[in-house]
């Protein structure tokens, strides 16, 4: 059974059913939304969104195109994309980590025996920002992680101005991160992943 078919919160959501106008003509309907794990074939679309989102702010991307392909080949099940009418509008890419805190090596490594999901990047296409899509996608991603028996917590690093956003998503700050990128410093944040047995019983996991 595929991840998409097993998890109800990853199944396509049709936002509105077709309606007819008073003249009998069918109105334009809102696009259907679909949440699914990403594949290496999605790498270019992912990178285009990420590049636009991050280069203007920090001058660099969390993941470059070869690194995106690297993680989507190694651990596609730790990614999640939001598609509207088949077009990627937001995504998360993660990998597994096996230590208590993130280190510089966590930027490029996937540790298959790890129990911490390192969220490398969350990005939203510029045309659909300020619509709450980042928060919704993160909520769905955390729900999805609860269905993975090996996942115990989610880790990420972010700049100071993003801390309130992730706190609203349920993350807590652990303090300064050991990882630096150029002149940038980061706060490390954590979210516990709980409820494995309950989720398996009640959502087909």
Automatic annotation (TrEMBL):
Reaction catalyzed: a 2-arylethylamine + acetyl-CoA = an N-acetyl-2-arylethylamine + CoA + H(+)
Location in the cell reads:
Cytoplasm
Look up the record and name the pathway of this protein.
Aromatic compound metabolism; melatonin biosynthesis; melatonin from serotonin: step 1/2
The record ties this protein, via Pfam families, to:
Acetyltransf_1 (PF00583)
- The EC number on file is 2.3.1.87
Instruction: Specify the N-acetyltransferase domain's residue ranges.
Output: 33-194
A GO BP entry is: response to light stimulus
Report the CDD domains cross-referenced here: NAT_SF
Recorded hits in PROSITE patterns, A to Z, give: GNAT
Keywords assigned by UniProt, alphabetized: Acyltransferase, Biological rhythms, Cytoplasm, Melatonin biosynthesis, Phosphoprotein, Transferase
A molecular function (GO) held by this record is: aralkylamine N-acetyltransferase activity
Looking at the UniProt record for this protein, which Gene Ontology cellular component terms does it annotate, in alphabetical order? Answer: cytoplasm
Family stated for the protein in its record? Belongs to the acetyltransferase family. AANAT subfamily.
State the name under which the record lists this protein: Serotonin N-acetyltransferase
Q: Which organism is it from?
A: Chaetorhynchus papuensis (pygmy drongo)
């Amino acid at each position: 059974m595929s991840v998409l078919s097993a998890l109800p919160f990853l199944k396509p959501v049709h936002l509105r059913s077709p309606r007819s106008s008073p003249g009998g003509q069918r109105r334009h309907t809102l696009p259907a939304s679909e949440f699914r794990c990403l594949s290496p074939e999605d790498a270019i679309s992912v990178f285009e969104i990420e590049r636009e989102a991050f280069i203007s702010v920090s001058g660099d991307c969390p993941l470059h195109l070869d690194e995106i392909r690297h993680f989507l080949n190694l651990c596609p099940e730790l990614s999640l994309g939001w598609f509207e009418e088949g077009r990627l509008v937001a995504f998360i890419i993660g990998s597994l980590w096996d230590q208590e805190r993130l280190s510089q090596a966590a930027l490029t490594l996937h540790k298959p025996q790890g129990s911490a999901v390192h969220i490398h990047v969350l990005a939203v296409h510029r045309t659909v920002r300020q619509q709450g899509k980042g928060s919704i996608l993160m909520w769905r991603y955390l729900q999805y992680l609860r269905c993975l028996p090996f996942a115990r917590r989610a880790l990420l690093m972010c700049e100071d101005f993003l801390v309130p956003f992730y706190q609203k998503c349920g993350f807590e700050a652990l303090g300064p991160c050991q990882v630096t990128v150029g002149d940038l410093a980061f706060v490390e944040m954590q979210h516990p992943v709980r409820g494995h047995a309950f989720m398996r019983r009640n959502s087909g996991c």
